[in-house]
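Re: that backbone. C-alpha cells:
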C-alpha cells in the first residue's frame, strides 16, 4: 500500500494538538505526523524523518506561523537535552496543557464525562526548583563531559548550568570538573564499562540550605579525594560528601554501598514543620515548594479532624504520613523499600511523632494480609503509587475496607484514570480532582484526587464509554509489530507479543484469543518494559 507521505520529503503542515511527550501532532494528507518542538495552532515546514504504517515523525525546519503561546527557551540546550520538553511553551500554557492531559485521560481511559479538574496549581517562579541533580559524567580523561543525557539517548550534553537546578550546582560541578582534569581522573564509558566516575548527584535542603554531594564511581576509591573534599567544603552549606560505589553494568544510577568522605551521611530538610533526614538513596520529592502544596491539597481533601485512622500506602520515607499524623488519631504507612521504612521510623522519632507506625512490604500483599488477619479498618486511605498505579489486589482490599474517603496522589494520569474507573465501579465516587505542577518545563503531571465511599445499597455505576474507547482504538490501532518497533526505537527494549498483550489487557484493551490464555509467572512484565509498552499504547492513542 502506498502511504500518502514519503521519508526525506519536506512538507508544510498545521499542528493541531500536543502529545503526551510535548510533541506537536498534525496531519499531512490525513496521515498522523509527530513533530517535536512544534506547538498547536502553528503552521510549520517539516522534513519527514521516519514513516511507519500509521504515523510518521518529522523534524521541525521552520515555523511559518508561530503559536501565541510560544516563548524563547531560557536554556541554550533546551531542544537537545532530554530533561525539558516544554520550555518553548509559555508557563500558563504549560499549566493548561497539564490540566487538559488529566481531563482527557479521565474521560478517555476512565470513562468519566464532565469531570471538573482543578486548574494546575503552578509556581510563582517556575525555575531552579529542583533540590536534587543527577549529572552523568563521561568523556576522555582530562576532558570531562558533565551534564544531561540528550533526548532518548545516553549521549552526554555538556552543560554549564541547568535552569531547573539550584545555582550552587554550577559551582559544585565546575569545581569537580577542574579536579577531574587536574588529577586525570578517568571517566566512565558505559559502552565498554570502563572508567571511574559515572555520575555526580547533589541534594540541597530548601529550608535548611544543607548540601550533599555524592560521587558515583565504578570502583573502590576516588584518587586524591581529600583534595576534592577540601575544595567542596569551602562551599557554604556543605554538609555531606559521599562516594557511592556502583560497579554494575546497569542504567541504575546508584549502587547500594555508600562511603562517607566527609561530614554527615545525610542532610535535613523540612516540609511544613516536619524535619526529614535525607540520605543519597532515599526517595524525596524533588520540588520542595510544590511538595508542600501537593501535601496540603492531600490534607485538605482528607479533611481530618483528629480522630481518624489513616492508611498511607506507598509512603516512601513517611513524608505524607508524618504531614498527616498531626491531624489524625493514627497513621499507618506501608512502603516496599525497607531502607525507606527505616528512614520513616527515624523521621517519626526525630519529630516526636508517636501516632505513626510503618511497615515494610508490598502494599498489594501486606494490606490484603492485614485485612484478612486483623480486619484492618481505616477512615481515610491515601495512596501515592509509582507510575504503574495500584495493583488490583490492593484496590479490591481498599474496597472491602470501605474507608469514608480515599485520597489518590498520582504521577501518571493514565494509570490514575484506570484505577479510578475500577474503584468507581465498586462503590467509590469521584469527588475532586486537582492538578499540581511539580515539574515545570517538563510534561510530567501530578494529580490529587478525592474519592468518597458510597453505602453498599447506594452504589453508583460509572459507564465506561467503550464505544468511544473502541472508536479511538480502531482509528489509530497499532499492530503488535508496530508497538514492538516503537518500543525498540524509543526505549531500546525488546518486548514480546505476550508482554504487549498483558499490558493491553491491563489497560482494558481487547486482546486476541491466544493471548488471553494464562501464562506462567516468568512471563511477568518487568516494570521498565511495562512502562515502555504503556508509552507506546499512549503514543498510538490506544489508551
Ligand atoms: N509518598 C511518598 C513516596 C511516593 S513515590 C512521597 O511523597 O515522598 C512511590 C513510592 O512507592 C516509592 O517510595 C516506592 O518505593 C514505593 N513502592 C513501589 N511499589 C510499591 C509497592 N508495591 N508497595 C508499596 N510501596 C511501593
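Recovered sequence:
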Amino acid at each position: 500500500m502506498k502511504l500518502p507521505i514519503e521519508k526525506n520529503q519536506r512538507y508544510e503542515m498545521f499542528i493541531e494538538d500536543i502529545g503526551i511527550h510535548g510533541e506537536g501532532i498534525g496531519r499531512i494528507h490525513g496521515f498522523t505526523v509527530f513533530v517535536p518542538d512544534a506547538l498547536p495552532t502553528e503552521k510549520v515546514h517539516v522534513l519527514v524523518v521516519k514513516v511507519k504504517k500509521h504515523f510518521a515523525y518529522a523534524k521541525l525546519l521552520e515555523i511559518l506561523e508561530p503559536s501565541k503561546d510560544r516563548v524563547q527557551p531560557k536554556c541554550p540546550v533546551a531542544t537537545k537535552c532530554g530533561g525539558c520538553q516544554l520550555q518553548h511553551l509559555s508557563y500558563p500554557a504549560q499549566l493548561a496543557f497539564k490540566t487538559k492531559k488529566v481531563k482527557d485521560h479521565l474521560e478517555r481511559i476512565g470513562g468519566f464525562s464532565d469531570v471538573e479538574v482543578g486548574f494546575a496549581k503552578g509556581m510563582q517562579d517556575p525555575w531552579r526548583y529542583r533540590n536534587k541533580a543527577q549529572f552523568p559524567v563521561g568523556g576522555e580523561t582530562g576532558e570531562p563531559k558533565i551534564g544531561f543525557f540528550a533526548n532518548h539517548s545516553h549521549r552526554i550534553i555538556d552543560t554549564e548550568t541547568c535552569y531547573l537546578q539550584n545555582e550552587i550546582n554550577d559551582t559544585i560541578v565546575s569545581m569537580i570538573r577542574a579536579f577531574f582534569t587536574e588529577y586525570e581522573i578517568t571517566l566512565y564509558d558505559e559502552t565498554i564499562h570502563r572508567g571511574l566516575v559515572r555520575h555526580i548527584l547533589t541534594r540541597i535542603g530548601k529550608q535548611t540550605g544543607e548540601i550533599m554531594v555524592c560521587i558515583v564511581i565504578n570502583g573502590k576509591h576516588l584518587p586524591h579525594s581529600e583534595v576534592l573534599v577540601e575544595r567542596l567544603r569551602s562551599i557554604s552549606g556543605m554538609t555531606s560528601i559521599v562516594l557511592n560505589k556502583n560497579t554494575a553494568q546497569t542504567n541504575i544510577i546508584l549502587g547500594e554501598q555508600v562511603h562517607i568522605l566527609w561530614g554527615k551521611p545525610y542532610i535535613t530538610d523540612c516540609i511544613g514543620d516536619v524535619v526529614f533526614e535525607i540520605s543519597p538513596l532515599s526517595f524525596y520529592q524533588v520540588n520542595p515548594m510544590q511538595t508542600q502544596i501537593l501535601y496540603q491539597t492531600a490534607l485538605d481533601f482528607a479533611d481530618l479532624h483528629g480522630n481518624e485512622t489513616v492508611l498511607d500506602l506507598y509512603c516512601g520515607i513517611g513524608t505524607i504520613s508524618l504531614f498527616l499524623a498531626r491531624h489524625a488519631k493514627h497513621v499507618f504507612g506501608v512502603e516496599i523499600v525497607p531502607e525507606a521504612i527505616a528512614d520513616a521510623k527515624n523521621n517519626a522519632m526525630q519529630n516526636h511523632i508517636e501516632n505513626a507506625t510503618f511497615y515494610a512490604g508490598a502494599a498489594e500483599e501486606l494490606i490484603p494480609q492485614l485485612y484478612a488477619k486483623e480486619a484492618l479498618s481505616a477512615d481515610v486511605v491515601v495512596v501515592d503509587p509509582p507510575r504503574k498505579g495500584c495493583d488490583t489486589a490492593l484496590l479490591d482490599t481498599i474496597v472491602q475496607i470501605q474507608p469514608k474517603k480515599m485520597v489518590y496522589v498520582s504521577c501518571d494520569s493514565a494509570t490514575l484514570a484506570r484505577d479510578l474507573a475500577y474503584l468507581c465501579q465498586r462503590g467509590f465516587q469521584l469527588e475532586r480532582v486537582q492538578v499540581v505542577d511539580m515539574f515545570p518545563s517538563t510534561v510530567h503531571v501530578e494529580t490529587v484526587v478525592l474519592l468518597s465511599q458510597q453505602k453498599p445499597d447506594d452504589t453508583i455505576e460509572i459507564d465506561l464509554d467503550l464505544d468511544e474507547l473502541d472508536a479511538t482504538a480502531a482509528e489509530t490501532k497499532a499492530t503488535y509489530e508496530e508497538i514492538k518497533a516503537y518500543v525498540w526505537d524509543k526505549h531500546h527494549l525488546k518486548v514480546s507479543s505476550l508482554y504487549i498483550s498483558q499490558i493491553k489487557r491491563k489497560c482494558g484493551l481487547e486482546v486476541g484469543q491466544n493471548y488471553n490464555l494464562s501464562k506462567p509467572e516468568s512471563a511477568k512484565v518487568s516494570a521498565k518494559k511495562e512502562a515502555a509498552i504503556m508509552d507506546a499504547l499512549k503514543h498510538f492513542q490506544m489508551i
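The chain is about 30% helix and 25% strand. Confidence is low (pLDDT under 50) at residues 456-476, 513-524.
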